Amino acid sequence: MLERLSNRRLAFVGDSIGRNQWESLLCLLSTVVTNKSSIYEVNRRLITKHTGFLVFKFAEFNCTIEYYRAPYLVLQSRPPAGSPK
């Protein structure tokens, strides 16, 4: 998968479920990289309890796996007048 992601970005956008998927993918992909120091967060942020965005670079493959927190992808509002209940 890292070879297919070479020179590309992969972004996860969402809530805690998306974050869990992002973290799982990071763990899976990191197992095949021999030089662990070539994997790093580009803004030097800690991964724990972060609320904004995180970008991990796999330098050997020149790719990034990114997470952007967006718990509400759809604006929640009241149904229009006259809509079925």
H and E string: EHEEE
The structural class is alpha+beta
Number of strands: 4
* Low-confidence spans: none
Helix count, DSSP H or I runs of 4 or more residues = 1
Helix content: 10-25%
Beta content comes to 25-35%
**Shape by Cα distribution:** elongated
Physical arrangement of strands within the biggest beta sheet: 1-4-3-2
In angstroms, what separates the terminal alpha carbons? Answer: 46 Å
Mean pLDDT: 87
> Cα-atom Rg, whole angstroms?
17 Å
Describe the model.
By secondary structure, the chain is of the alpha+beta class. The chain is 18% helix and 26% strand. It is built from 1 helix and 4 strands; from the N terminus they run βαβββ. The protein has a 4-stranded mixed β-sheet with strand order 1-4-3-2, with helices on one face. It is elongated, with a radius of gyration of 17 Å.
Structure summary:
With 85 residues, the chain is an alpha+beta fold. The protein is 18% helix and 26% strand.
Please tag this protein with its features:
about 80 residues, alpha+beta, 4 strands, 4-stranded mixed sheet
